[in-house]
Amino acid sequence: MSASPILPGATIGFLGGGQLGRMTALAARSMGYDVHVLDPEATCATRPVASRTITAAFSDVQAAIDLATQCDVITLEIEQIHPDVLAAVAEHAPVRPGREPVYIIQDRLRQKEWLAQHAFPLGAFMMADSAEAIAHAVNTFGPGIAKSTHGGYDGRGQVRLSTPEQADGAWHALGGRTCVVEQLVDIDYEISVLVARRPSGGVAVYPPSRNHHTGGILTWAVAPAAISEAMAARAQALAMTIAERIGMVGLLAVECFVTRAGELLVNELAPRPHNTYHHSERGFATSQFEQLVRAICDLPLGSTELYAPSAIVNLLGDVWLHDTPPNIPHALEVPGSRIHLYGKAGARAGRKMGHLSAVGDSAQQALSRVLESYRRLSPGTTDAFDVHEPSLPQH
Ligand code: ATP
Ligand code: MG
Fold first, then answer.
1. Which of 213, 218, 258, 272 maximizes ligand 1 atoms within 8 Å of its Cβ, making it the mutation to test the pocket?
2. Which of 257, 272, 275 to mutate to test the pocket of ligand 1 (most atoms within 8 A of CB)?
3. How far is CA 267 from the centre of its chain?
4. Burial code of 264-284, b = ≥16 C-beta within 10 A, e = fewer?
5. Are 38 and 159 in a shared domain?
6. What is the pLDDT of residue 3?
């Protein structure tokens, strides 16, 4: 049982006010919490939902303390928060997730080394602090991806290499800083698993989501994942063990690859709500956003039961930049579909502006509907963004 839950009426502070903060803040608001946010952008997506917005860098200790002194609990929607900021904030309000798991996760190399030390399954990787070291990695395990240790997302800060001769270019493209070179995994399909943990010990795990990326950016996600029960159970057990070992309070998303040889490998971790679980707002008993609020407030975690197969497709800025503007009414004619927009002002190529969602009688139908909705919304962008419908395996 919880010693001291943080009850509705209290104020939740968010470090980071992007779409993840916004959707969590909306869930917090519906439960009767007040919301404050700190973000470097004055017009951040969470601003309209928050009663107080502090515009400051994530390295600004004083601003973070200012946030914490008026809040009952602090959470984050981005892992790039300096450990000193989290330590300072923790003097004034509980920070969930805490400093340790965020510190491990926020550096890709540190995260991989931690996973390797704890014997979690990973693809081959090497640290590289020079072009020669990148070339050595590719000579050792063949084609790979060099990834920045900090700040990469949506495939940014990554360079693919097929030969060691490309190492020089990759090193310079990544700014001449230490990076991780990963062996290119022979992926059959990608899944993720979301785990919630509360301070007093309760844990909840969601059924896996099946995910598809185009050029390193999530295109669509669907649950159920259309994988065997054995693989789902393996992935859930793996994610729960990682969440426990790393001491996560709040949400932990574990991105996984399943190789053509049937191996389950961890790709990366995220200590926050995750793009691949946006369908949890549609198909699950408890959305990931409400679950995060429950977890950080030490309330009983909600059921992770799947009520209806559900899927999402991301909407990138490209949709608004195209000659043909998005046809929202046409998209919403698809049964079971909805549009979610994050209220961001500037559409830029590759910037996540919102998503479409759909429910259906099966994973295939939910996915089919949401992809149809996308093709209606933005027929001109379907070549660059892979929204062709795959045939999901039957299990
Ligand atoms: P995000 O934080 O948005 O999830 P990211 O920028 O951290 O993304 P990754 O998760 O490392 O990027 O990679 C994005 C996608 O690129 C993966 O989901 C996968 O589709 C592909 N990818 C990444 N690493 C590998 C690899 N080693 N082998 C094969 N494909 C990979
Ligand atoms: Mg990823």
1. 213
2. 257
3. 12
4. ebbbbbbbbbbbbbbbbbbbb
5. no
6. 66
For the domain that residue 287 is a member of, what is the CATH number? 3.30.470.20
Nearest by Cα to 324 from 385, 369, 375: 375
For 143-194, write each residue's pLDDT tens digit.
999 999 997 777 789 999 999 999 999 999 999 999 999 999 999 999 999 9
Report whether 312 contacts 221 (CB < 8 A).
yes
| 310 phi/psi in degrees, rounded to 5 | -150, 155
Q: Is residue 5 domain-resident?
A: no
Q: Are residues 306 and 224 in the same domain?
A: yes
Residue 8: per-residue pLDDT: 98
175 with 193, same domain? Answer: no
The ligand minimizing its distance to the Cα of 191 is 1
Domain containing 169 — which CATH number? Answer: 3.30.1490.20
Same domain, 234 and 327: yes
* 191 and 178, same domain (yes or no): no
CB 221 within 8 A of CB 313: no
Those residues with Cβ within 8 angstroms of residue 119's Cβ, 6 or more apart along the chain or in another chain? none
Please give the Cα distance from 165 to 171 (Å, whole number): 11
Ligand 1 atom at minimum distance from 125 CA: 27
Asked if residue 208 belongs to a domain, the reply is: yes
**Residue 213 shares a structural domain with residue 353:** yes
The dihedral through the CA atoms of 243, 246, 249, 250 has a sign that is negative
Q: What is the pLDDT of residue 314?
A: 98
**Within a domain: residue 6?**
no
Per-residue pLDDT at 210: 98
What residues make up the domain containing 129?
A: 124-183
Pocket, ligand 1, Cβ cutoff 6 A: 123, 145, 147, 152-156, 182, 184-185, 187, 190, 213, 216, 255, 267-268
The domain total for the chain is 3
The helix/strand/coil state of 255 is: strand
Q: How many residues does the chain have?
A: 395
Question: What stretches in the chain show pLDDT beneath 70?
Answer: 1-3
Residues 137 and 73 in one domain: no
Measured CA to CA, the distance from residue 85 to residue 393 in angstroms comes to 46
Same domain, 128 and 75: no
Q: Whole-model pTM?
A: 0.97
Cβ neighbour number for residue 113 with a 10 Å cutoff? 16
Residue 357: inside a domain:
yes
